[in-house]
Hints:
Blueprint: H1 2-13, H2 19-58, E1 64-68, E2 74-75, H3 79-85, E3 90-105, E4 108-117, H4 121-124, E5 131-133, E6 140-141, E7 144-145, E8 148-150, H5 151-157, E9 167-172, E10 187-192, E11 197-199, H6 204-207, E12 210-214, H7 215-222, E13 227-228, E14 230-235, H8 241-252, E15 256-260, H9 261-264, H10 266-304, H11 306-314, H12 319-355, H13 378-402, H14 404-411
Parallel strand pairs: 4-12, 8-11
Antiparallel strand pairs: 1-14, 1-15, 2-13, 3-4, 3-9, 3-14, 5-11, 6-7, 8-12, 9-10
Amino acid sequence: xxxxxxxxxxxxxxxxxxxxxxxxxxxxxxxxxxxxxxxxxxxxxxxxxxxxxxxxxxxxxxxxxxxxxxxxxxxxxxxxxxxxxxxxxxxxxxxxxxxxxxxxxxxxxxxxxxxxxxxxxxxxxxxxxxxxxxxxxxxxxxxxxxxxxxxxxxxxxxxxxxxxxxxxxxxxxxxxxxxxxxxxxxxxxxxxxxxxxxxxxxxxxxxxxxxxxxxxxxxxxxxxxxxxxxxxxxxxxxxxxxxxxxxxxxxxxxxxxxxxxxxxxxxxxxxxxxxxxxxxxxxxxxxxxxxxxxxxxxxxxxxxxxxxxxxxxxxxxxxxxxxxxxxxxxxxxxxxxxxxxxxxxxxxxxxxxxxxxxxxxxxxxxxxxxxxxxxxxxxxxxxxxxxxxxxxxxxxxxxxxxxxxxxxxxxxx
Length: 413
């Protein structure tokens, strides 16, 4: 097994009778290296955007969330939910009531999502880190009920962080008959006071639509006394989220849907995964094209060494051994290109992380980050290496199997 490798290594580094073969072999290595480097960099860029978006959502979304499978709300004192709250790995449990409503401020009105939460919501999420204004997270004081708006919603309504006129919220009455002569009787109306802050998740889904309010106020507005639409959980530090999730699923069965942060934003992350997959496929096709250089260089090398092949054959080398020599030759070209490409890709990723040379736009552009985010996931690097080796192996096998010199050698048997 070592003999074919030894001969192949000598052929790879030795001077050929035709100088062009050395050049083509070097071009083959460079082509594979560039395609491999592109795969590492592009996949790391997609990982960077994925991690960036995930970090933004963790400031607002809970670690785990339970929602009823049937209907929109369930009793807050459901025994199943009590069992979930009592799990040893659960650090914070927050009841939530969410529903659509109409917010009216002066002459402006916007459809909004009211999210009623407990006072411990700030312990559940990183909401404190995304508040802007002169106040702090506070939902009520004495007989005042505060509403914390998303920053884009505050701009649409023109409230700012402080407002003196009341912010009215209208929600349709869900039970009873409506007097057609007085449509205003079909709505429950309540008002919110200014808390002095707004939140900025940097996601339009939240910033342009959500208002955080006390859960008691939300229950009164929507007629959901003693009910909740979701139970949000934060686990203790070091707890295995997937294991706890499975424990909760075993408790609640098919009555509740249990979702982690990624499942709560399933549409966003699925789109990102699909984009990453198609980028991988596209670059793999480029890699296949680059491997045609291996076919050319290996074919020319075999023809150049036809005298050596004849000599080895006379010395008793079998056709299988001859094929293994050139298989090793092609594999070394592919692996050399793969390793060089991976190292260059990792180096460029590190430089981008440290210095941010490739920027998203001008300094005046309103991007969340200034430079392309990069996050190297070594499982991706491993799959890139496997892909390059697999594509290279197929190209090499096809070449060695079909070159006439080796076919003639086999026919001498």
